[in-house]
Description:
The complex is a heterodimer. By secondary structure, chain A is mostly helical. Chain A contains eight helices and two strands, in the order αααβαααβαα. Chain A is globular. Helix content of chain B is 67%, strand content 0%.
Amino acid sequence: xxxxxxxxxxxxxxxxxxxxxxxxxxxxxxxxxxxxxxxxxxxxxxxxxxxxxxxxxxxxxxxxxxxxxxxxxxxxxxxxxxxxxxxxxxxxxxxxxxxxxxxxxxxxxxxxxxxxxxxxxxxxxxxxxxxxxxxxxxxxxxxxxxxxxxxxxxxxxxxxxxxxxxxxxxxxxxxxxxxxxxxxxxxx
Amino acid sequence: xxxxxxxxxxxxxxxxxxxxxxxxxxxxxxxxxxxxxxxxxxxxxxxxxxxxxxxxxxxxxxxxxxxxxxxxxxxxxxxxxxxxxxxxxxxxxxxxxxxxxxxxxxxxxxxxxxxxxxxxxxxxxxxxxxxxxxxxxxxxxxxxxxxxxxxxxxxxxxxxxxxxxxxxxxxxxxxxxxxxxxxx
Lengths: 188, 184
């Protein structure tokens, strides 16, 4: 009987734990480990989640984009599969609304003492295994529909990546400013 | 006597939009962006969460039925193991605990007040719906190839086309379902 290692090197695991500590700390401080905040964004009553996500995208995009331009990091792109991304995305959304916590914020919710996240985590373990049971069939059907490979927005819009990032930054900032204005003017 | 003995704390009335985050969401978000620079630089990994559950599910599956689990296409490509992402999620639980503890926000309860207002004080419906929701969410994440972290933050910040599509679909599916849940 051959033994298969089920762990990665300790250094890799330690780094994961360290980055996780910081990630969880920031998620909780940003308010997104709370049922009301996560459900609030889906009911269009609380936009904290959008503010956290778009700020992370803005800062992350500029930093990673620059580091990539300098040749200091490699991008880790997931392939674009139009059917999988959209159908899977919609299914994810349904589950997200029912459970109110997503995979990252669910762990954060548990950390802050929202014990209902335990049920969500248990559900996610089961759902992941159910997917694996049908992975062959799913990946052979919708997985190959609209498989475009690892494509990025600058290629689609035929704009140089750095210029695209500048444009994207303005779009994100404009969106957030508008969001603040709408919140201040129309929401109680 | 608290309304339901399962819960440690008295639940206050909380509505979305009235709950201030400890830090500005812009600051927390921006720092998550900075964190992602370092995960790329040091670990050569994007932040992602849903994959960890698939790994742990695979380990549990292997413990129960190793031969069946090993033959599944997903686990042939992604062998069950404790990896960077699993440790990341363990770290998230601990990090969130530290943040809530330092901010006096440990909730220690089974039911969110907003749930109680809409659906009552029984604990099991929340756990059942949470479990079903979690299962559907993980299924969706695996079909889509990631979750709100892997697609929604890490994929979008790399300007991946599929990640932007997935993020928009997360919110369309989520908003539609949430409106049905809370308005009927």
